[in-house]
Amino acid sequence: MLATDHDDPDEGHNARLVYSLEKNVIDESSGSAIFSIDSQLGLITTALCCLDREKTQRYTIQVVATDGGGLKGTGTVVVEVGDVNDVPPRFSRPEWTLDVCESLTPDHVLATLTVVDNDVSNNFSFRVVPGSGRGWQLFRVEGRRRGSPGGDLRSVTPLDYENPSHRRGFRFRVQVTDMGEHGWEDKYHVDSTWVNLRLVDDNDNTPTFSSDHAHLTLPEDTPPGTLITTFTARDRDGGGHGRVRYKIAEDSDPRRQFGVDGSGAVWVVGNLDRETAAAHTVLVWAVDDGNPPRTATATLTVNVTDVNDNPPFLAEPRQVQVVENGGAQVVARVRLGDPDDWRQGHGPPFTVALDPRAPQHVADTFRVTHDKRGDEGRGVGVVWARAGLDREERRSLLVPLLVADAGWPPLTTTATLTVHVADLNDNPMTPASKTVIVHTLQPQGKPVPLGRVYVKDPDDWDSASKTYSWRQYVEGFFLNSSNGDLTMAPDTPEGRYELSFKVNDASQGQFGVRANVTVEVKTLNAHDVTYATPITLAADPYQLVVEREGGDSSTLSLLESTVRAWVGRDEAGVWAVSVEALEEHPTPSTITDACRVWLVSPGMTNLQHLILYRKLELSAILGVSVREVGIGTCQEASPVIDLDDAYEFEGEIDFEEVSNAAQDVDGCMDGCWVRAALGEGFSVVDANTSALVGPRMEVLTTCGCGNTAPDHTTCSPYTCLNGGRCIPTPTGTKCICPHGTWGSRCKVVVRHFEDSGGGRDTGGEVGEDVPVGGWAWVAPIPPCAEVHLSLEVLTRSPAATLLYSGPDHGAATSDTEDDSIRELLLLELRQGRPSLLLDLGGGPVTLTLNASSSLADNTWHRIDLIWKDELVEMIVDLCTGGGLDEPPTFPSSPAHATPTDAHTCRGAARLPRTARVLNASGPLQVGGLAHPLPAHYLNDGTPIFRPPHFQGCLRNLRVNGQLMDLGGGVLSQASYPGCPAADCLSNGLYCGLHARCRGSPGSLRCECQAGWGGPGCATPTTPTTFLLNSYVKLALSFTPLGYTTSISLRFRTWRRRGELVVMTSQHGRDRWAVEVVGGRVCVALHLHPRPPTSLCLTRATLTDGRWHSLAAARYGSAVLLTADDGDGDLYNASVVLEGRQLLQVDKQEGVHVGGTPEYMGVTVFSVHKDYHDGCMDDLRISGRSVPLPPATNSSAWGEVSEYKGVESGCGAPSSCANVSCRAPLTCVDTWRSYHCGCGEGRVVSSSSQATCEDEDECVWQPCLNGGICFNTQPGYVCSCPAGFSGQHCHLPDVGETSLKLSLAALVAIVVWCTFLFLLICAFLLHQHHRRSALRRGAAHDKDDTVSCKEQVSSPCSRTPNLLELKLLKPPKANGQPAWTKNPNIADVDVLQVDAASETSSMEDQKRSGISSAAPDIEHGGSKDGGMRLETGKQNGVSKRGMGNPPAGDDLRNYAYEGDGSSPGSLSSCLESCSGSAKFLGGFREVAHMLES
Q1: Is pLDDT at 1308 greater than 50 in this prediction?
Q2: Three-class SS state of 1227
Q3: What are 845's strand-pairing partners?
């Protein structure tokens, strides 16, 4: 070490330098210095031997150079110790045990054998010791070039588990040296380790069939259950013991006619039909149990031989036309066909004859002969008319023909030939009138057809000979003079129009015959048409509209009046808007015509359910079969055709079109959606004297689940449910909801079900009667490939029906539906445990949970059902082990926070591959079945019986996030909205305006709504504004449960990105956060080591500058997210319970609000996902309110440890600065935004459009329950009737609420009231005698008493001996109201004060030199919460005198307390009581009663 001194070395000793070590390094073992320095030369040397780099790699010493004058200079020396390869290598393990997949290639690293060697100058070399063990020659080890030292173990050749020698495993020895390839002789630098390697079987072999093809011939009448062949497959994986399961490829057996069992035996399971398929090529798959599985295929070819199982049918003609008055003639020569194999004699020659059961008029009109030689010897039937036909007598006739084939035995059937009688103009016409009902939608762009002008004429094919003209023209209507067709202008207003015409028929010599037409125009609302209910009837539209014989009203009018009577509405309440024919081109299977009637009932949402429930009754009333109510399922809406009929009628059917249509429906992988929509043009049903014209309706079938949430941007009768009133707003609509409803549409989410009172019904096991109980019908489950259904139940019944969806006997007809059903859902309780039966068309699947505890414990429990991807899953209480509505408890031991056993709370079952969606067009029946369950059997043939009805309460029924309305609009029996057992008000617990009732019976409690807190939830919470780079760090005083964590808050922002709340574990490995991502609210959950997951409200826009409530809850890895009312798009859930389920929140360092700070150095930091320019309010974690600074920095549940950039309140600078709007509009500030408008309660004048005027909100009828609306400027005021209060008179007064009391309670109340009444009478009688005595004494005292000023110690005033009661307020707990059913009242009695004390006057006190003092009144102090009055005395004389009051025991005193204060309270009774006061027995109860 050299130093430089610039002093003169030749003068004195100032330039002489001496070196020394100021900071040396000391050896810990000896205590000696490690380094030394030559004081003259500055040479640094080691003082000890030897240095060890592996122990200390670097030394730092400080050298001081001192000159002769005493001046010093310092320098630092860093000594780096060079490495010498003096440490031997060592394997990190003495023995390695490895499990290796057999499919790994030789280039793949099987394992890295790590080595520990602190030297840095190593030259590692590895080898497998030859002959060291089994399989040593199959492996090699190569040194790693990067990373930590070690050797990579690889195989030399491919490994194969199926090789017996490989299957045994391998054991060999590996050595390492750090001296290179030639260092193996130096044993000090060599180490070794053992490697035990076991092969793991991979699914690398496909199963092989012993025989992969079979060819069979079967007759078509082979019965189901016949064994036809067996395929056997073997899997070499698993040592040749791999499990193989067999299945049939669905595409090769579309009709499910064959089946295979676990042994590979193939059976006939369905009926064979040669006419449908003469041959089958069935693919049998052998599938192993690998992942992914491997599949081998065997082919089964089946030829089906014919059996004479089909009778002949009419090939041609099926319909003929004969002109009337034509005399005897041949009507038709009928050819026959037969789908059976004619080569086997199962066909011609055919025989034809008139059916002997033919009606008499048909037998008298026609005769049938058989021509054996006709149709090339096949035989034809010749139909003769015995005489001329008359169309005016019969328009058509049905001729039944008895046909038979040549089989043995021959098959016979009856075929029908339709003979239409063509018209001749052989009758004169007479005047007639016609009524046309027209339903139009405005605006309408096209002319509206009204049908034809009608005159009474038996002939109906003579229109070409008639001409038409106006008798008196009416504007807006147009006449076609050649054919009499009448049309109407599209903008014709609603009303009644009388039209008159002249009709001429030159061929009959008639001119100017009068024809009157009455047109009734009714304007429809688009919402009414959208909610129209379709009914399919087995009738021709003409027969439905025409008047019936005898002058009776039409069948359509009877339908309207019947439904109107059921609904309880007048003529304007229910009407048919459109009638349409369904089968315009009948197929051979068509027996009767059919039409669809669309009924409208404004504001009624359950009309379809009402008609469906009384479907059989309606059929009997109309005399017409009701085929279907509603638009049906996808299969029913898509083109479906019978292939037998197609064979007969193949000339008129486009098979390719039918096949493509069916393929399109089957190709909907995510589900199928059927909906009604307005079509083009109008539907016209003209029935001579009447006609019905309405908009044409269409039934559309599309892929997907559809938009289940209807558009309610404008007010309609369907916007607000359960009596809510719709009010238009600038952003859409708003519902004013009655008490007891929920959400933006006033839904009722809870319903009570009870026994109907002893009714009985069949439907259980044989010989068993089932009590008829409550039930309710809601909207059906959508036919989606993925369905999530959840509900909460409260019951004591261990056996009950919860949900049912499927065919219903009461709604089915025997001629249209098979009693054997397939697709259904049945959820029930069995012994208190949930049980599910689900059949999506591929066969029934049962799922039962063996829960450790029963759900019939009178506590709310949640059940989730999810089916998707061929799997159905059921979860109870999200595996929390208890009801979700109970308040969380925070155990001291983390072990108590573990979830319940998954086997008792969660179950899953596989669905058949063909099962994708639940196609059930009927309603979802809740709480029980309205009719007996149709026949259904499990796979083992066990019949399914009707379970008993549910008794209890059910709430929050959701289907794919949509809350089902359970209010008064649902069709129900023995059930009603609400749940008295879980209602706080019904149990004497009043929650106030800003709290909601939570909990189960016995543990009910009130919980403040978002944004409210304090006693009675009457205090608004204070929001916090987050500025740029702001955050809040919280320290919790409680430990959230590891399995369950919830976050709720209110927020307001325009920002599209930011972190609201984040909770992490220590070191941040696990994370649970609520954040805004891309303008959507999301939650993020990361439970290490699983990858992070997120859940968002993708369809809800919440970054709109308005306040929104948000609640996020996790139960293990299941996540629920709700915003505002949590309905539809404001709700999302992911119920996936896999992997780790616990999140241990770091309660001191792991909770951040508004962003997560990251420190960069000491003071500089940045905030990740900064939530700025927004507000937050009322943050609760696990139901506990935590503080938000700066308004609140600590609470009972946490405190603020750090915060930055936050302000109290949620103010914002004006957004209208420098903004101008076009007159008459002005700028309206909307918190950090603005719009141009007239302001609150004002709209642009509809007349001038140049001014703003007050809007009369009372036209919306916003006041409920009979309230009267008064328009104000701006806004409105509701005057509520007795018993109701609130802004819209929607809240019932607590005093008006009726409580359900038992008879014993009523008797006890009457007895106590009688006792108190007698006590009051006795007390008042006693007071009356005292007042009489006082009045007599007062007359004497009046003459003797002149003035208090003249007396020294006269009792000028009487101390009151009765002081008013004051009731104690209920205690508070945790900042929340802790109301109870019976609040404790101070245990005090009526006070009695000693009245014998004397007072002196003020003048006497002054003359005596005694200073006057005000009375000393203390508030508080007494446990009864009353006031204590203390009077000071001096020398036995009081300090202050009083005037002469009325008698102190007169109750009228309380009316004058405080100079005329209201007597409605007795609050002064305890507020001025001296220490000597005592209560009179019983007066406290009297005062309390009077107070109430």
Answers
A1: yes
A2: strand
A3: 838
Q: How far separated are the first and last CA of the chain, in Å rounded?
A: 101
CA distances from 377 to 341, 369, 372 (A): 17, 15, 6
Say how far apart CA 697 and CA 248 lie, in whole Å: 42
Helix axes 555-567, 615-622, angle to 10 degrees: 140
Contacting residues for 349 by C-beta, under 8 A, at least 6 apart: 372, 377, 378, 379, 406
pLDDT per residue as tens digits for the range 885-912? 776 555 544 434 455 666 678 999 888 7
- Which residues are within 8 A (CB) of 1308 and not within 5 positions of it... i.e. 6 or more apart? none
Reference 800, options 776, 773, 781, 778; nearest CA is 773
Contact 736, 1277 (CB under 8 A): no
Q: List, as one string, the DSSP characters of 659-698.
A: HHHHHHHHT-TTBEEEEEEEEEEEEEEEETTEEEEEEEEE
CA–CA gap between residue 803 and residue 792 (Å, rounded): 12
Runs of H (alpha helix) within 343-442:
360-365
Q: What is d(CA 1048, CA 418) in angstroms, rounded to the nearest whole number?
A: 73
Please indicate whether residue 1248 or residue 381 has the higher confidence score (pLDDT): 381
Q: How far apart are CA 22 and CA 62, in angstroms?
A: 6
Name the nearest CA neighbour of 100 among 184, 201, 229, 1.
Answer: 201
CA 515 vs. chain centroid, Å, equals 59
Phi, psi of 1006 (to 5 degrees): -105, 135
Amino acid identity of residue 91, one-letter, is F
Task: Count how many Cα atoms sit within 13 Å of the Cα of residue 223 in the half-sphere of its side chain.
Answer: 1
| pLDDT higher than threshold 70 for residue 809 | no
User: Residue 890 in 3-state DSSP?
Assistant: coil
Find the helix or strand (DSSP H, E) in which 63 lies.
strand 58-66
The H or E element that residue 78 is part of is strand 72-80
Q: Dmax over Cα atoms in the chain, in whole Å?
A: 164
- Higher-confidence residue: 944 or 380? 380
Please state the separation of Cα 1325 from the chain's center in Å. Answer: 66
Per-residue pLDDT at 1436 = 36
Residue in 825, 821, 849, 1072 with CA at minimum distance from that of residue 934: 821
Rounded to whole angstroms, the Cα distance separating 672 from 706 reads 8
Let me know: does 1123 contact 1108? Beta carbons within 8 Å: yes
Q: What is the mean pLDDT of residues 411-434?
A: 90
* Percent of the chain residues past pLDDT 70, beyond the cut: 80
**Close Cβ partners of 223 (under 8 Å, ≥ 6 residues apart):** 268
- How many helices and strands (H and E) does the chain possess? 15, 96
pLDDT of residue 920: 81
pLDDT digits (tens, 9 = 90+) for 1196-1226: 999 998 899 999 999 999 999 889 999 889 9
Cα 1239 from Cα 1216, distance rounded (Å): 13
pLDDT of residue 650 exceeding 80, the answer is no
Residue 1342 CB coordination number (10 Å): 10
The conformational region for residue 482 under phi > 0 = left, psi -120 to 50 = alpha, else beta, is alpha
Going by DSSP bridges, is the β-strand pair 1044-1053/1174-1181 parallel, antiparallel, or unpaired? antiparallel
Q: Which of 751, 809, 759 is nearest to 776 (CA)?
A: 751
CA dist., res. 827 & res. 802, Å (int): 5
Task: Please choose, from the candidates 832, 829, 807, the residue with its C-alpha nearest in 3D space to the C-alpha of residue 820.
Answer: 807
Whether a cis peptide bond, with omega within 30° of 0, leads into 1274 is yes
Residue 686, both tokens: 């003209």
Q: Provide the pLDDT for residue 1160.
A: 59
The closest alpha carbon to 454, from 495, 514, 509, 510, belongs to: 514
Per-residue pLDDT, averaged over 864-883, amounts to 90
Per residue in 287-334, pLDDT (tens digit) is 887 777 889 999 999 999 988 888 999 888 989 999 988 889 999 999
Residue 1328 has pLDDT above 90, yes or no: no
Distance from C-alpha of 904 to C-alpha of 1137, rounded to nearest angstrom: 13
